[in-house]
Amino acid sequence: MERLVLAKMADGGPEIFASIQGEGVSMGLPSTFVRLAVCNLRCRWCDTAYTWDWARFDRAASILALEAGEVAEAVRALPPRNVVVTGGEPLLQRRQLVPLVETLRAEGYRFEVETNGTAGPGPLAELIDQFNVSPKLAHSGNEGLRRIAPAALRELAATGRAWFKFVVAEPGDLAEVRGVCAAAGIEPGRVVLMPEGTSAAVLAERGRWLAELCAREGYRFSTRLHILLWGDRRGV
User: What is the pLDDT of residues 137-170, one digit of tens each?
Assistant: First the structure.
């Protein structure tokens, strides 16, 4: 059986921790986070670059490989029954995730997957309760990489369990949001807009005009609750 590649905490263990969901439609829900490593994009503002940027971070010190059973054991040791698989880009390991998800779903766990939307759900399509899809806009800095994949976005939308979260830095980003949604057939009611920022001050400033825009155009609004509560820290 192939192993899952996870981010590693400073103590050498896997980055699996209990907190509350900080973004999107399930914001505030007690959750166990499982952070996978490796990503196919290179966002300039990424706050988990240690999962993929081997020019800045030591690969051996940043990741580890575990069997699905070992990950399941770590999840069971924590109270929340909602599991958020994040990254990195989890759908790069969608096949390896199947045994973990099947095992814990049989025990009553609920699963969310955070994804950039460049890969379809594949064998996870019927297993995941909620896909939190975050297509990356031009300001992410992914020049030369396929950051928007309309076919994959349509596959995710077809599950009926996907929400599409866009990180917005300035009002001009909305034209690109509309274009992506039109190309992938995403309805405004499934769209969540969130201000870009890693400080409470920036989130408040951008959040004010973004919330007003959401009210006008029928999008959902989300802030970054974990940033407001704990700042830009790992493991919370």
Answer: 999 999 999 999 999 999 999 999 999 999 999 9
* Prediction pTM value: 0.94
CA distance 187 to 204: 27
Binding residues for substrate: 20-22, 35, 86
Digit-coded pLDDT (tens) for 96-145:
999 999 999 999 999 999 999 999 999 999 999 999 999 999 999 999 99
Residue list for the binding site: 20-22, 35, 39, 43, 45-48, 86, 88, 134-136
Q: How many CA atoms lie within 13 A of 230 on its CB side?
A: 10
According to CATH, the topology of domain 4-187 is TIM Barrel (3.20.20)
Q: Please enumerate, by residue number, every residue annotated as part of a binding site for Mg(2+).
A: 48
Q: Domain extents for the chain?
A: 4-187
| Under 8 Å between Cβ of 85 and 75 | no
Annotated binding site for S-adenosyl-L-methionine: 45-47, 88, 134-136
